[in-house]
Structures are given as C-alpha cells and as structure tokens.
C-alpha cells in the first residue's frame, strides 16, 4: 500500500487517532475537510458498491478488473488470493502505514479452540480514526455501535474472503445525512484495504 497515496486521499500528513472509521484526515486528530480522490492507500475503487445516495440492493455483484465484490444487506465481500494469515498481515501493515489506528485483532478460531471447539481461520480487524468517525456519530449517535470500522477475514471452501460494512448502508441504517463525500472516501479506503488495490 502506498502511504503517500493514502495520505493525499485523506488530506493528512501525520498519524494518530483511534475511533470511528477510515478517511478524510483520519490520523491527525484534526477536523480538516476530507477531499475527494479516486484512490486511497492502494484503494482500488472509490465506489466498491453503490453510489452514495443509493441504498444497496439486497444482493448485488460487481465485477472489476481484479476482483468481484458481493454486496448483500450492506456487507461488501471480496475474495483474497492469499491465506487468511497473509491477508490479515497485509491489511494490518496497510493500516499501520496509514492515518488509521488498529484498535485490535480478534482471532475467533483461537477463541473457539480455547472452548474445545473447531472453527476455520476467522479473524476480525478493528480500526479507525476519531477525526473521521466522530462527525458521523455527531450526526447520529447510534452509528457508534458500528464504529470503529471492522474488516473480517475468513477461510471457506472457496478460499479466503474479506468483508466489511458498506458505509452507505450504515448511513441509511442510522439515518445519517449530509456526509456523502466522507462516506465515499471511507468506502474507498475500505475497498483499498480489502483488495490490496
């Protein structure tokens, strides 16, 4: 992931923060107005799902040059060519090199094993930035239940999958208006992290 591209997209120059989501001027802890950009930190596509004013259809598949995104009830799912561990390492490194803060990584398979249960590799990364998430929470406090942003990486019979919540879906769910540009940038960053774009 190219840190300079991400910083330019997010309009920041430093790293720091932890709450909300990924974009705008995330890591600085400042409230600079996010600028619209086609890519972020290797973000493949600023519109991985639907346009910001649309509500995602219940099930939709979008083909791109390198990957297929499945949008189902607000969940965007893409395939990864790497193992779960390699994908998690790649996303973690990209987050750490960006104006985002990694809050935690939850290893659900390890937790299952601690209870003598079996679960294929399943890891959840939680990351964000208060400079970006806070304005969303100011618009609707209930969005705090979905923030910071989360990215799920798991293995199934078809390989490794990566999933995240579509920001437009979250805006619709929590009745957030007037944040279209911010939501577009959040989506672009999430898409870039998920697809190594």
């Amino acid at each position: 992931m190219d840190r300079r591209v991400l910083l330019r997209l997010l309009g920041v120059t430093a790293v720091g923060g932890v709450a909300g989501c990924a974009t705008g001027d995330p890591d600085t802890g400042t409230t600079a107005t996010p600028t619209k950009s086609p890519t972020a930190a290797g973000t493949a596509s600023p519109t991985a799902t639907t346009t910001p004013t649309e509500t995602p259809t219940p099930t939709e598949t979008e083909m791109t040059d390198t990957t297929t995104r499945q949008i189902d009830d607000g969940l965007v799912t893409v395939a990864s060519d790497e193992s779960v561990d390699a994908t998690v390492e790649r996303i973690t490194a990209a987050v750490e090199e960006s104006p985002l803060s990694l809050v935690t990584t939850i290893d659900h398979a390890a937790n299952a094993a601690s209870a003598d249960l079996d679960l294929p590799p399943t890891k959840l990364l939680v990351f964000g930035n208060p400079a970006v998430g806070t304005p969303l929470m100011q618009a609707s406090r209930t969005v705090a239940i979905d923030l910071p942003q989360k990215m799920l990486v798991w293995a199934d019979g078809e390989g490794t999958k990566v999933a995240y919540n579509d920001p437009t879906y979250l805006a619709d769910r929590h009745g957030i208006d007037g944040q279209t540009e911010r939501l577009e940038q959040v989506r672009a960053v999430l898409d870039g992290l998920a697809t190594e774009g």
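The helical segments are 3-10, 84-96, 108-114, 130-139, 167-174, 180-195. Residues 180-195 form the longest helix (16 residues).
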